[in-house]
Amino acid sequence: MATGSRVLVGLTMILIISGELIVPGQGTCQGDIEGLMKECAVYVQRPGPKVNPSAACCRVIKSSDITCACGRITPSVQKMIDMTKVVLVTSFCGKPLAHGTKCGSKSVIS
């Protein structure tokens, strides 16, 4: 894993632990978020090229409540994640986000 990817995953884990990734009062899908960040962060990070995700990332996506995870993305986390890449990765893994799904502060328009 590249140094930049390790930093992103480390920062994200700090945000998860500190509660910054969870929107207060909305419950949690913590296990989903932790798995997504561990296996998929490198594919959705900003900046960086668009790369097809790994089989491990796709397994996590297929078993996760992506809508729940999308609803928990805070503005501070969204600064590190390219939402276009999120849409591409979920589609590649066979679990596309539905038109109109709100992910962070963005709505899916594809």
From TrEMBL:
Pfam families: LTP_2. The keyword Ubl conjugation does not apply. Residues 26-103 form the Bifunctional inhibitor/plant lipid transfer protein/seed storage helical domain. Gene3D superfamilies: Plant lipid-transfer and hydrophobic proteins. InterPro entries: Bifun_inhib/LTP/seed_sf, Bifunc_inhib/LTP/seed_store, NsLTP-like. It comes from the Eukaryota. Residues 1-19 form the signal peptide. Keywords: Signal. The keyword Transcription does not apply. This is Bifunctional inhibitor/plant lipid transfer protein/seed storage helical domain-containing protein.
